[in-house]
Amino acid sequence: ADFVLLSESLDHLRQGLPIVRRALKVVRQNLVWSFVYNFVALPLAMFGYITPWMAGIGMSGSSLLVVLNSLRLQRRES
């Protein structure tokens, strides 16, 4: 993504880079979690080892985990 600088100070750009790095780290974590969950859960559901309602609860839990992981970005570091 692009980085928009709304002031004339380039110091803000330096301050924003750690935030961008943290965001990319969280995005990668979320992608890995999604792929792992789907790689495991879809074959289990397809072959009948888990019922549709269990797969639905698992997908909801997976989505909740991704959202909660993303919300960690709102915490400010001291």
Written account of the structure:
The protein is mainly alpha-helical and 78 residues long. Helix content is 72%, strand content 0%. The protein contains 2 helices and no strands. It has helices at residues 11-46, 52-71. α1 packs antiparallel against α2 (52-71). The longest helix has 36 residues, at 11-46. The model has no long low-confidence stretch (mean pLDDT 87).
Structural class: mainly alpha
Q: What about the largest sheet? A: none
* Approximate shape: elongated
Give the strand content: under 5%
Please, what is the average pLDDT? 87
Terminus-to-terminus distance: 26 Å
Instruction: Please give the share of residues in helix.
Output: over 70%
- Poorly predicted runs are none
Number of strands: 0
Q: What is the rounded Rg? A: 18 Å
- Figure out the total of helices: 2
The sequence of SSEs as H and E is HH
Short synopsis of the structure:
By secondary structure, this protein is mainly alpha-helical. It is 72% helix and 0% strand.
